[in-house]
Design goal:
mainly alpha; two-stranded parallel sheet; 4 strands; 62% helix; globular
Length: 372
């Protein structure tokens, strides 16, 4: 099965003849913005300060619990919740840019900060394959974009996915499974995933032999379990099972935030789910495909934009993943005006809650057999 999928992936082609002028114009205008303002496309002081703050949100409560400064059960619970928020912030605002190579022009810096995904329970190489290669290349294409492929078909994110009776209630139960995202990373998912990617030939994209990647994965998991599980059980003065519950709660908070932010950008009524034709071609060129399958939300909410690492500007991120997210808000007007000029859709919702309501509507719609 893996070889079949990989062969299909290798032969899928976007239409390069359409919208060539739009592509050239948009790229030039964005490049001109950085040249004219003498701004680097990489991280700036805002990004560095955010990195420090996000890591502190995660580590400070942890250290205070380990050292016995925080002992009250309710403060301990609050600390783990804050850590979950920090986990999500690190994932969206630090690790994400680093693993896209957009944090720094120094690849060593990107690699080091990209490996911070260990603190979230994930593995950088797997994340790069699933997110950078499969999701960014084949956004919202069923069978190609694993980010819209829920395990065991528990959720239906695409009209091309198989419909099941349970999907009628997915707008109610989806949130529980959203919260399991980082838990699954920290358990067996990475091992299953890297083995599947090897069969698909995708581990070759990481410029390392499979044995090296597997060794790194095992080391990362040992670091994670030693740091996040063993230390609290040993040093926090509470029963081990209560500590485990707190760790799971932290993961649930992080998973819920990360999954929700992602779904609001791709699974709403305005985004499309293109299909591959009989010639293994996609209707539009890659840039227009990204505009059709991606949406922004709450573009004026600067606090939200700061916390989610600019991922409320998913359109700009998908078009220019090599640009650090701190610049998305500045180039968003360029992207939107150019899209409108060429009659190309630019999906955006005015607020987080409007986007959330539309996502629920989409889950309801996909839960009906009429769209199966």
């Amino acid at each position: 099965m893996g070889k079949v999928i990989n062969a299909q992936r290798a032969s899928v082609r976007f239409c390069t003849k359409s919208n060539a002028e739009f592509n050239r114009t948009l790229k030039k205008r964005v490049q001109d913005y950085f040249k004219e303002n003498k701004v680097s496309r990489f991280a700036n002081f805002e990004m560095v300060s955010k990195t420090v703050i996000m890591i502190a949100i995660y580590l400070v409560p942890f250290i205070l619990m380990l050292t016995g400064v925080i002992t009250n059960i309710w403060l301990v619970m609050a600390s783990w919740i804050v850590m979950g928020i920090g986990m999500a912030g690190i994932g969206m605002g630090v690790m994400h840019d680093a693993n896209h190579g957009s944090y720094s022009k120094n690849e060593t810096v990107n690699k080091i900060l990209g490996r911070i995904i260990i603190l979230i329970g994930g593995f950088a190489a797997n994340w790069k394959i699933q997110h950078n290669i499969l999701h960014h290349s084949y956004t919202n294409i069923h069978g190609m974009d694993e980010d819209i492929d829920a395990p065991a078909g528990l959720l239906r994110f695409s009209p091309d996915s198989e419909w099941k009776k349970a999907h009628r209630f997915q707008h109610w139960y989806a949130w529980f499974f959203y919260g399991l995202l980082t838990m699954s990373w920290s358990t067996n998912k990475d091992f299953v995933q890297i083995s599947r990617y090897k069969k698909m030939g995708l581990t070759e994209t990481q410029h390392a032999k499979f044995k090296v990647l597997m060794t790194e994965l095992i080391i990362d998991k040992l670091i994670y379990y030693g740091f996040i599980v063993a230390l609290p059980i040993i040093f926090i003065d509470m029963p081990w099972w209560q500590t485990v519950i707190m760790i799971l709660m932290m993961h649930f908070v992080a998973g819920l935030i990360l999954s929700t932010v992602f779904q609001l950008a791709h699974v709403i009524p305005d985004t499309k789910f293109p299909q591959i034709d009989e010639n293994n071609k996609i209707e539009n060129d890659w840039m227009v495909h990204q505009l059709q399958t991606t949406a922004n939300f709450a573009h004026k909410n600067r606090l939200l934009n700061w916390f989610v690492g600019g991922l409320n500007h998913q359109v700009e991120h998908h078009l220019f993943p090599n640009i650090c997210h701190v610049h998305y808000r500045k180039i968003a007007g360029i992207v939107q005006n150019t899209a409108m000029e060429y009659g190309i859709p630019y999906n955006t919702e005015p607020s987080f809650f409007k986007a959330l309501r539309n996502h629920v509507r989409m889950l309801k719609s996909l839960g009906r057999p009429a769209v199966a």
